[in-house]
Design brief:
Structural class: alpha+beta
Strand content: 25-35%
Largest sheet: 9 strands, mixed
Number of domains: 2
Number of helices: 7
CATH class of the largest domain: Alpha Beta
Low-confidence stretches: 1-8
Helix content: 25-40%
Oligomer: single chain
CATH superfamily of the largest domain: D-amino Acid Aminotransferase, subunit A, domain 2
Amino acid sequence: MAFLFYFDDMEFVIINGTILEKSKAGLSPDDHSYRYGDGLFETMRISNGNILLEEYHFERLFSGLETLKFRSPAHFSKQKISEQVNGLCKKNSVEGSARVRLSVSRGSGGLYDCDNDFSYLIESWPLDQKGINENGLIIDIFPDARKSIDVFSNLKSANYLPYVMAAIWANGNKLNDALILNQHGRICDSTIANIFWVKDNKIFTPPLNEGCVAGVMRKKVLALATHNPDFLISESILTEDILLHADEVFLTNAITGIRWVKECRGKVYKNTISSKIFAKLG
């Protein structure tokens, strides 16, 4: 007996290169992404038919596929995926501004008898274009998980359980986001973003070897230091004590860009430099 999982919040999706009505989009119950969290995903922002930070997204995607030993078909190329993303956004009438999720799975089968088929899904949603958030975020540190540091830590993996539980915890505590600890008890990132902090006009973010996801907007912000000597940005470990003594804190991801944090555990932050970085990134 087959079970179908329907996508009710859009008109069309793409499965393995074919545009389908949402009601006809299904997932096999023995798909590896569903059964084992064995897959990758990219969440991309579309503006006027362009994938923002496109090179960074595809660099991360194909590097992740290689790390997970996926056998991607020849037609799964940057050019083909870009065309399909734009085609889907046009079909769903969201090409002006959209959020797109590309999910990749190894296919169907058990743990040892997977046929290593390659399957992918593209979804799109309308997205409002906004500036930096007017109301600062309220965040805290999720206490119940420790993210391991290994070769898979930086991937946008379908195995997302620590982040899911942290998001549930954040909602239950009326927070805007929650920070994730690594195996050493240090902060690596948040449920949906990388974290930066400012101290004495210097900007810092945890290095990738602390276990954070290799965010594309994180990479873009770090590149600012190369071209803008006014921004002094470096990588450093982040502890709770460092966080609570920072002057500013902001979160970054590909969809929302930069969001400044107003408060964490009673500590109130400014948003002077985060606003300047937002303006510089456009």
